[in-house]
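Problem: given the chain below (176 residues), write out its structure.
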Amino acid sequence: MFDEILQRMRDKVSSRQYLMTLHAEEEMSDDNLTIYDIEQGILTGEILERQKDKVTAECKYRIRGLTLDAGEVEIIAKLKSNWKTCYHYCIHTLIPGKRQMLCDICGSEGVKIRQITRTYGKGKNLLVIENIPVITCADCGETYLTAETLHKIEQIKTNRKKLAVERPVEVASFGS
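Solution.
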């Protein structure tokens, strides 16, 4: 029933023509999943049901697939009429050839690229990655990472011993 929709989503994943919301990337990291797990889940998964987004009234799809280590992952995905794709672990596609990107949430023009710093892990496994490029909408505040950025983050995490420079970090407790 949903074979054509799932194939379009798989094509976007295979060609790395998508964006993921910063919020979704944070959830992915909190769940100890990588972008490779999410992509594998879409490539191996099946659509379980179609749902209606409460905010945008758009259709979204619940996909269940396998991670790289054969664990299960569920992903909520949208496929829009303009070929944009959104996954929970929300992935959105870029529109090739467009000079001005449109925000996938509010549709406004002129989203900007900015640099952020993110932390991964805890304690002795803490890794700080600086200057991560993200796409941000000034109107609604949504922030996205490109597929290429997500893959680069995974490469940095995997090769942290070679790429990271050790620096002292001040840590304070909120209760102090």
